[in-house]
Amino acid sequence: MMSSSSDSSRWETRVLPVHAEDIKFGPKDEIPTIDSQTETYKNLNEAVNILKTAAGPVAFPTETVYGLGASALSTNAVRQIFAAKNRPSDNPLIVHVSSLNQLERVLHTKVPKIYDPLIEKFWPGPLTIILPLPEDTQKDGSPILSPACTPGQSTFGVRMPSNVISRSLIALSDLPLAAPSANASTKPSPTRAEHVYEDMNGRIPIILDGGSTDCSVGLESTVVDGTVTPPAVLRPGGVTIEAIRSAGGDLWKDVITGKSEAGKNEAVRTPGMKYRHYSPRARVITFIGDGNGCNGAITEFLTRVEPGIVIGLLQSKYFDHTLWDDSLQSKLNFCENLGTTGPEISHNIFSALRNFDKRNVDVILVEGVDESDEGAAIMNRLRKASSEIFENGKHIKKTDH
Ligand code: TXA
Ligand code: MG
């Protein structure tokens, strides 16, 4: 068994294909139907065996990003996740279930009424809800949910993924899976199996590869806390705050949004906020403000940039480098379009940051987006990934990058 991060580089990591189209799993079903002749069935069951014997964490696709899962009931299994990712041990993990029945039966948890309208609308899907820890214990008095999932917390986060590969893995193993994103800590979250391989090769036994149709959302789940008054969004994500207000009715009309940054010593509601996050090797600089304001700051930046620095540009709605002076265009080594809509940009952003790292870009210049709808989650990730931000003429330099 793996005991520390120092011996975690011992696996011959295998990438096993699984195909969502081989799986039938309706939102209200308890278990999937999968033809036993398919490689999907064989590979899923191989992963199930690893999970059941706590032989190492398994990477798998979800509709948000790839997760790195292990049994949330086993402290040994959960510790293997922290070791493989090199994750700070006080950052809690989200528990993934395949059905409400499993949440009740295995984790002895009944969901409070406040969540009913959100579960009805968004589960299975990219919404994590915060719940009080189960009161029941195992026969020997130990907690049902491993305390390693919830360091220092009196609550736990749970979600039911809509991706049928991840939901099948949870249902077939009948284990709630603790699963953070399957990147190495501080790196951008993975949205393709090859991203997981880049970070986790040698550190985990298998990666289930869902092909290019997975991770349709591209950013992590929204984390909401309905155990407090007023209820709060702790992390913006795949379900927009506007959608929560609209589906949540009176219970969620006063929902507040947490702040996206927290100091190292500050007590925080969402512990992961205080860590460096989502950062490629290259320096990321984000430009916020629309139209001319934004364009002005980037052209000024390019005018001053030293020769020899490899620059990649990620543009979306307002930047159009083809309209810039030749002298500025000549400073851009690479340019990619993130798309113009919230869902497109969410889907592309993590992958785009990783692509530029592969091309040895030194500085990534990103066009920011308006913070409504999907923009809230996109800008939450970009603010954390950036070492510098130009916001409507204001220049913010971060110290932790
Ligand atoms: O979409 C997702 O949620 C992905 C996929 C794999 O499902 N998972 C994910 O996990 O993003 P991770 O570990 O990267 O993010 C977990 C974050 C923590 O950093 C924290 O912000 C919040 O979820 N969280 C988890 N448990 C919490 C708790 N009890 N109280 C407050 N925040 C919690
Ligand atoms: Mg993460």
Structure description:
The protein has 401 residues and is of the alpha/beta class. 28% of the residues lie in helices and 18% in strands. The chain has eleven helices and 19 strands. The strands form three sheets. An eleven-stranded mixed beta sheet has the order 1-10-4-5-9-6-8-7-11-12-13, with helices on both faces. Helix 1 packs across helix 5.
Short recap of the structure:
The protein has 401 residues and is of the alpha/beta class. It is 28% helix and 18% strand.
Task: Spell out which ligands are present.
Answer: threonylcarbamoyladenylate, magnesium ion
Report the span from N to C terminus. Answer: 34 Å
Main sheet attributes: strand count, strand direction, barrel closure: 11 strands, mixed
User: Share of helix among residues?
Assistant: 25-40%
Strand numbers in spatial order across the main sheet:
1-10-4-5-9-6-8-7-11-12-13
Low-confidence stretches: 1-6, 260-268
Order of helices and strands: EEEHEEHEHHEEHEHEEEHEEHEHEHEHEE
Which features would summarize this protein structure in a list?
single chain, 401 residues, alpha/beta, 11-stranded mixed sheet, 6-stranded mixed sheet, 28% helix, globular, binds threonylcarbamoyladenylate, binds magnesium ion
What is the secondary structure topology, with strand pairs?
Elements: E1 14-17, E2 23-24, E3 33-34, H1 39-52, E4 58-60, E5 67-71, H2 75-85, E6 94-96, H3 100-107, H4 116-122, E7 127-132, E8 155-159, H5 164-173, E9 177-178, H6 193-200, E10 206-209, E11 222-225, E12 232-235, H7 241-248, E13 256-257, E14 283-288, H8 291-304, E15 311-315, H9 326-329, E16 334-337, H10 342-358, E17 363-367, H11 375-385, E18 388-391, E19 394-397
Parallel strand pairs: 1-10, 4-10, 6-8, 7-11, 12-13, 14-17, 14-18, 15-16, 15-17
Antiparallel strand pairs: 2-3, 4-5, 5-9, 6-9, 7-8, 11-12, 18-19
Helix pairs in contact: 1-5
Bound molecules: threonylcarbamoyladenylate and magnesium ion.
The site of threonylcarbamoyladenylate has 27 residues, from strand 7, strand 8 and strand 12.
